[in-house]
Amino acid sequence: MAGNDFRGHAERFLAAALRHPECRGGRLVSVDAGGSRIELDLNVEMPLQFKVDGASPNGVRVVETVNVRLWPSYPWSSPSFSLRMDFPRDLPHVQPGPVTEPPRPCLIDGNQREYFFQFGLVELGIFNLVHQLILWLQRAAEGTLIHHGRGWEPTLRRDLNDVIALNAEACRAVVDRNGGYRVFKSTFFRSGGDGSLVDKQGTTWLDVSQTQAALKRDDKKLFGRNTRDGYWFGDTVSCLVWPDKKPSGDEFVAAAYMPETVDTLARLKERANELGCGRGLDVFLENLNRCWQGYVLEAPVPIGIILCARRPEHLVGSVSNIELLPYLVDIKAMKGRAALFAAGDAEPVVPAMQIDATNPTLLRDVSGAPELAPVSMLGCGSVGSKMAMHLARSGVTISAVSDNGMLRPHNMARHALARASFAGSKAKELASELGLLGQSPAVHDGDMVADLPKNEQRKMFLPKDARYAVNTTASLAVREALSTIGSKQAKARFAEAALFGRGDGGFLLFEGAARNPTLCDLTDELNATVTDDRVRKLLFDPEFGLTEIQIGQGCGSLTMPMTDMRLSAMTAALTEELVGLMQADEDPGCIVVGTRAEGSSNTTWTHERVAPFEVVTIEGPQGWTVRASSRVMTKIAEEVARYPTVETGGVLIGTCSARLRTIIVVDLIEAPPDSERSATRFVLGTAGLKAAIKVRHRASGGTLFDVGTWHSHLADQGPSALDRATARQLAAERPPPSVLLIQAPTRLYALMHDGAIK
Known about the structure:
By secondary structure, the chain is of the alpha/beta class. The strands form six sheets. Strands 5, 6, 7, 8, 9, 10, 11, 12 and 13 form a nine-stranded mixed beta sheet that branches. An eight-stranded mixed beta sheet has the order 16-15-14-17-18-19-22-23, sandwiched between helices. The protein has a seven-stranded mixed beta sheet with strand order 24-25-27-26-30-31-32.
C-alpha cells in the first residue's frame, strides 16, 4: 500500500511540516531502500530568561533539530522521531534506550499510528504530529512534562521486547524503610532469536512467583533450562531490591527522573546506587555467586532484578509511591568459567516491561443460533474472542482468526481464554481453544493493515469459504484498509463490532452488498444520525468514550475499564444481532446500536437500514471519488424541487481520507439566507455559516467536517468555468480537499482542483 515513492513521500512530509509556524527549517537528509530521513529545525518557546541563554536550565535549546524517519510502509505507518544525542534524557516521556542511541520522545499516550490516521488527510496528520512534538519540546524546556497533581509518571517501558510479570502490589507491600532484598522463585520462557538475552529478534518472559528462595548452595532445583521446538524455558530466580534508609534515618526518596539507559551490569549497579538500592543488590549478587559455586549449567539462564524507587508522590493510577524498575541479565555458569557473569561489569543487561500478574475469571456465555455460513474473525481480543466462542458454540464455522497481539495477563480479566502468563499470540491461542470445539481455523498473526494488499497473506485471514468477516479490532487503520478491498478480492461480507461508554454501549456495522455502503460509510452515517441523548453521551463524551487505562506501568494500553460481566453481556447481544443480520442477508447495509439504561440492566437496541451510497468519480485529482449517503441525495432532491427555476445549493458535511482517496458525505447544511440564486448561478452566502459548521462539528462529537459545497444545474451540463474557478479558489484557501458536487437533472458531477491534493 505504501508504494516505492520514498523521495516523494519525504518531500511531501517536509512541505507539510514546514507549514507549522514553529518549524523554522528542514531538509531531506537521505533516501534509500529503508525509507527516508529528514531533519526539522523547531523553535521551542520558553520563558524570556531562558531564551537569553539560548537554552532552558535542563538543556533544551531554543532551536532543536529533530531527526524524522519515514519507513518503507509510510504513510500506512507513522513517522519516527529522535532527538540529538546530547539531548537531556532525565525527563519523563522519553523512550527507554542505551546512551549509544539518540533519545526518542513519547508524543502520544497510546498508539501513535492511530493518532496519525485519525486526521484522514496525511498532511493534517503530519502537521498535528509535528505540533505534538513542538508541545513536547516546550514542556520539556519548562519542566512540565509531568501532569502535576495526577501523581508521579512512571518511566516509559511500553515498547520493550522483554517482560517481567509479577504481583506488583504484593511486591510493594514488602518494601520497608530499612532497605533490603528478597529473592523469589521464577520461571522463564524465551522465544525467537538464538536464545540469548541480547538478541533483538527474541523475547524473554519471566514470571515471578510469590514463593521466596533462600539461595542455598545445595539447592540445585532453583535453576534449570530446557528447550523444545525453538523455545527455551525453565526455572530461575528474581530479586526485589528496595532502598536503604539515609544515615539520618529518613527514607531514601528518588525525586529526580533518570533516563532509562541501563544496558550493562555496571550501569545497573550505578542505577541501584542512585535509588538507594546499591547495598541490597551487591549482597544479592554475592549470595548468587556462592549459590553457584561448583555448579555447572552449559546454557545461559536469565534472572530478574527489580529495583524499587521510592518517589516523592504516589504513582499515576496508584496509591503507592513505589515504582518498580525491572531488568533482566543472563547468568552463564559454564564449565571453567572465571565468573558467573561472563563479561563481568560489562555483562549486557536489558530493561524489561513490567506486567501486572492477573487472577482471571471468565464467564462463558452460551447462546443458540441456526446454521450459518463460515465467519472469519479479524481481531481476537476481548470482543473478538468472545464473539468467536459464542459463534463456535452455536455451530458456526470459524474459518480464520487474525490478530498480531500477544495474549498477556491483563487480557485475562475479560478475554474468552484462560492461559499462562507467557501464552502465545491471541490468534494462535484462540485457534487452539476453537480446536477443542472441533474447529480448525487458519491462523494469521501478522499486521492486517500491511497484509491486506498482498494476495497470499490476505487469503490467510479472508479465505474463500468465509462468507462473513467481523472486524473487532477497534482500529481506524484496519477499517480503512478493509475499505480498499473490492468484492472480487475477497467474497466475505464485512461487519464491525465494538463497545463504547465502558460497555454501556455497543454498535454493529454490517456493510451492504458489493461493499456499498462500506464500513467507513457506515461509521460516518452513525456519527451523522445519532440523536438520542444517552447514545450521544456515551459515544461522544470523552468521559464515557473510548479511554486509555494503565496496565502495569508506563503509557496507557488502548482498552476500556469494565467488568467481564458487562463486556460479556453486551458482546453476547451484539453476537445475537450479527446472527440475525447473517440470517436475513439483505442487500442494504445496517447500523445496530445498543445502550444500557442508567442504573439498570435494560438495554435498548436501534436498527437503521442504510441504502447504497451514491458514488461519483471526482474530476481533477486521479482516483478520487465522492460517496454520498441516500439521505443526503434525498435532501438534495427536495431542495432542488423547492427551487425548480433557479440554481440552489448548500454545504456538504462528512469526512475525507487521503488514503482511500475518498470524500464521504453524510449530511448537508442549508444555504445561508444571504445566498444568491438565479437561473445561471448560485452564490453561497456567509451569514451564520461558520457558526453552523461549528455547531454541526460539535454535534458529531468532532468527527464530521465541512468537505465542500453542492449546487444544482437546470440542464444536464457539467462544471462551468465559474465552477472551475471556485474549485481553484477553494484549493488555494484551505488545506484539506474540498469537493464541488453538482446536481444536474439526470446525473451528478463532482469537481476538485488538482491543487487541493499536494
